[in-house]
Amino acid sequence: MIELEGVPELIDPVMVAAFEGWNDAGDAASAAVAHLDREWKGEVFAALDAEDYYDFQVNRPTVFLDGGVRKITWPTTRLSVVRIGDADGKGRKRDLVLVRGIEPSMRWRSFCNEILGFAHELGVEMLVVLGSLLGDTPHTRPVPVSGVTSDAELAGRLDLEESRYEGPTGIVGILQEACTHAGVPAVSLWAAVPHYVSQPPNPKASLALLNRLEDLLDVRIPLGELSEDARAWQLGVDQLAAEDSEVAEYVQSLEEARDTADLPEASGEAIAREFERYLRRRDPQTGPGVATEGGLTDSSFHRDPAAGRTRPPRPAPKEPREHRPGDDTGTQDAGPEKGAADSDGAAPAGGADAADSGRPEDGPEDSGN
């Protein structure tokens, strides 16, 4: 059993996770979780043992100076808790468990079991995994975000797509499969990043993921400077595209394809979602998504392997089904390459219709989760 010393009882906890690497085009997903941790002053309570899951020749440790003393930061996955002091503008409190790290290099099933062990001990009600993929989508239009689950009941209740993808997968697909076997409701949200501007960061895609997460969980998320960063990012890409006539022409073709595909989406439902988001954020006194001062009131649970933390015993949720060779281990890439397919959607999109619609049907937007 995993012992979590000093962690208070959580209120309606939801686990939100993102992993750098193949499932994180433009660093959009990991940046979104980092934003939540920063804005809500997350309290780190555990970190997985890097020795178990990472190839240090692929993900190298870094050295830094702390008061003249050299220290090492090891690549790992950390868990933190944030308490939302006013989740819905009506004084309702809620806790999020944030999981942020790097796609492991090995022992993926054990990695997922350890994450689910923490989820079980904390009473997590649902796991939401964020991802981003490369697609044929123009930077000038709203970022398509797909919501996918393998649970038919959850898909109907939360207006999500059921995954039908078959093909290579990343850690997000394996984690969602593990959730299915463990009986933990799981959802993945995928943002499509323009493949012609795939370099990180991409604050516009991060913002789109947070907006969709806000709708899914019915919470108010403080955006800080993210909206302004997204506008500045788009302006910068506009300027670069204007300097190259071929790029400008290509972007225009993507815009035309996207606008044609989005005509059915210009519905009252989409307008209603945007209006509901506006209402959540309009409280002039509390402001959007106010967190308890300093995060959780109990701050006695900081533990980290770098500080000599002992790794918790292995939990024993049911392991995911056996995958084809090559799915049990993975290597850390700078991001998904265009043209690759991923069952959890972390691969670049194929045709414009699939990516531009932001739907996971028969294409790499399908998260396979």
UniProtKB/TrEMBL annotation:
Gene3D superfamilies: PAC-like subunit (3.40.50.10900). Pfam families: PAC2. Residues 342-355 have a biased composition (Low complexity). InterPro entries: Proteasome_assmbl_chaperone_2, PSMG2_sf. Residues 316-327 have a biased composition (Basic and acidic residues). Residues 278-369 are annotated as: Disordered. This is PAC2 family protein. It comes from Streptomyces kronopolitis.
